[in-house]
Automatic annotation (TrEMBL):
Signal peptide range: none
A Pfam family it matches: Beta-lactamase
Domain Beta-lactamase-related as annotated: residue spans: 8-318
Name the UniProt record assigns to this protein: CubicO group peptidase, beta-lactamase class C family
SUPFAM superfamilies per the UniProt record, alphabetical: beta-lactamase/transpeptidase-like
């Protein structure tokens, strides 16, 4: 216990993380550690019972709800969604639940329309998807899709007769005895809850908002503790959820493939499943090694959470399981000469505009509703070639390297895969 508490503190301090909690479960033993403060303004100390936003780890919980309904015969994974939601209008009416859970629907994935705090927010959100772009043809590629999980949450509502929040509480939270897991800010206020932090002029400051719109709930609104996240992860899942469903165009940023809700990773020949989550100023990480009954989760509220995760999990998985955590892709030791001209142009989807400039810079701008919330300026990433069609782009703020893969769909359209999203080129 002391070892991992000390390492959490040392590494979190090194990477400017204001507060964090760590949970490790293996066999009958569970370790929980806490570091730092929940809020730099108030100085409230983090404890192991502190709640953090787990972000997109929420998607696995929503997928679990769906699989319960599949088991009950209320929906089929490969039936068009319009069979259970006749009112649904999408650009492609053949979208199924499997497409949503595997991020292959092609629905533009970052539609963050705020449809209010009412219990009808997901109903309104799903109706608004009739205007959403089809980012890529159905099944043509893989692209991370928040919108699809909000839609999946609406399907859960249709089939259960209540809200997604109520279904989660009745079907997962209460049966598992998760006493520190909530979905709404007024519920989080009843607990010791973390506030997100962002970097401003090299310093950590409070995030401009606390949470995300309720309409994004099924994609990322759960607030929980490391203990509750571990209990959920080890509670026994539908075996099909961890099985291979689709390969990823970029195998360097996340895993190599996806299941039903779960990310699939290959670490030195060992198969893991997991998921990460990011909200405004908070980041979370969950990895499960089924073969050794090992699960590890890390919740953070700012700073370079990705670096903290990388270094801490490398030590944990090496010592407890003898499993090597791959190093992130970075610039090659020997420079690689690649002509960038074929990739120059504008790549755009909802909320994001990406420009590959002739001088080897990727300029990323937030657009739409998210731009109003975040008020961020365009960010320029330096691009370094790794091999033909593959570059790494350095985040000027964190120094982290992010892969950018250029490829074509089977039908020939040029795409860039960056930040786990497939984005079509719209201007050459």
């Amino acid at each position: 216990m002391t070892q991992w508490t000390e390492r959490l503190a040392e590494l979190a301090s090194r990477h400017d993380v204001p507060g964090a909690t760590l949970g490790i479960s293996q066999g009958d033993e569970q370790i929980e550690a806490a570091y730092g403060v929940l809020n730099l303004r108030t100085g409230v100390e983090v404890t192991t019972e502190s709640l953090f936003q787990i972000g997109s780890i929420t998607k696995v919980w929503t997928a679990t709800l769906v699989m319960q309904l599949v088991e009950e015969g209320k929906i089929q994974l490969d039936a068009p969604l319009v069979e259970v939601m006749p009112e649904l209008r999408l650009r492609d009416p053949k979208v199924t639940m499997r497409h949503l859970l595997t991020h292959t629907s092609g629905i533009d994935g970052d539609v963050f329309t705020d449809t209010g705090r009412g219990d009808d927010c997901l109903e309104k959100y799903a109706a608004g998807l009739s205007e959403a772009a089809q980012n890529h043809p159905l099944d043509a590629t893989w692209s991370y899709c928040n919108s699809g999980f909000s839609l999946a949450g609406r399907v859960v509502e249709k089939l259960t007769g209540g809200t997604w929040d109520a279904a989660l509480r009745e079907r997962i939270i209460t049966p598992l005895g998760l006493e520190h897991t909530v979905t709404l800010p007024e519920e989080a206020l009843m607990h010791r809850a973390a506030v997100g932090h962002v970097t401003d002029d090299g310093k950590q400051v409070l995030a401009p908002v606390w949470g995300i719109p309720r309409s994004a709930g099924p994609a990322g609104a759960i607030v929980s503790t490391v203990g509750d996240v571990l209990r959920f992860a080890l509670s026994g899942m539908h075996p099909e959820m961890a099985e291979h469903q689709v390969d990823l165009p970029d195998t360097h940023l996340l895993g190599d493939s996806w299941g039903l809700g779960w990310e699939r990773l290959n670490w030195g020949g060992h198969r893991l499943i997991g998921h990460d989550g990011n909200t405004i100023g908070q980041a979370s990480f969950l990895r499960v090694l089924p073969s050794q009954g090992l699960a590890v989760t890390l919740l953070t509220n700012g700073g370079n959470g990705a670096k903290l995760y990388e270094e801490l999990f490398r030590e944990i998985f090496d010592e407890l399981a003898g499993v090597p955590v791959p190093h992130p892709l970075g610039p090659p030791a020997t420079p690689v000469e690649v002509d960038i001209a074929p990739y120059v142009g504008v790549y755009e989807r909802a909320s994001i505009r990406q420009e590959v400039l002739p001088e080897g810079v990727l300029r990323v701008s937030v657009t739409g509703p998210m731009a109003e919330v975040l008020q961020e300026k365009p960010v320029d990433y330096r691009m370094v070639a790794v091999e033909p069609d593959l570059f790494v782009c350095q985040d000027p703020e964190t120094g982290n390297w992010i892969p950018a893969t250029f490829y074509e769909l089977p039908t020939g359209e040029p795409y860039m895969h960056f930040g786990a999203r497939a984005t079509p080129r719209c201007v050459r």
